[in-house]
Amino acid sequence: MKIAIGSDHGGYELKEHIKGYLDENGIEYVDCGTDSTESVDYPEFGQKVAEAVKEGKCDKGIVCCGTGIGISIAANKVPGIRCALCSDCYSAKMSREHNNANVLAMGARVLGRDLAIEIVSTWLKTDFQGGRHERRVDKIEGIENKYALD
């Protein structure tokens, strides 16, 4: 498994902490930036991670900003991306099992580091259940296709 990971300045320290977890667990990743706590714009990094997943360069993505809201909105603008903002392990699990989320968003100013790692671990270890959930994910894709800009 290969993970694209990115953040803005508000999520930089959490991103670095998550990279440590990924290193410790032998999980390959691509750091899509940013590389400091200097102020940057979150849409750029949400887009970079989402595009890496969409293009198949990475299997899944993780994005962080101060609240996780802005960067998740940005990531979700990329067709084919289902970015879930999670602040607890149950939501992380359900986002994978039921929604087949392919990008995880978290807020660095909302979560403690230990909880963030638990969320990442849960999310990465959980598989999509398919079945009745596949039909629902297909409907989400149908909405996306209806409004796709060509």
Task: Please summarize what this structure is.
With 150 residues, the protein is an alpha/beta fold. The protein has 6 helices and 5 strands; from the N terminus they run βαβαβαβαβαα.
Q: Care to describe what's here?
A:
This protein is an alpha/beta fold and 150 residues long. It is 47% helix and 16% strand. It is built from six helices and five strands. It has a five-stranded parallel beta sheet, sandwiched between helices. Strand 1, helix 1 and strand 2 form a beta-alpha-beta unit. It is globular, with a radius of gyration of 14 Å. The relative contact order is 0.17. The mean pLDDT is 97.
Fold topology:
Layout: E1 2-7, H1 12-24, E2 28-31, H2 42-54, E3 60-65, H3 69-75, E4 83-85, H4 89-97, E5 103-107, H5 113-125, H6 132-146
Parallel strand pairs: 1-2, 1-3, 3-5, 4-5
Specify the overall morphology: globular
Helix residue percentage: 40-55%
| Strand percent estimate | 15-25%
Pattern of helices and strands: EHEHEHEHEHH
Biggest β-sheet: count, sense, barrel? 5 strands, parallel
Strand arrangement within the widest β-sheet reads 2-1-3-5-4
Rg is 14 Å
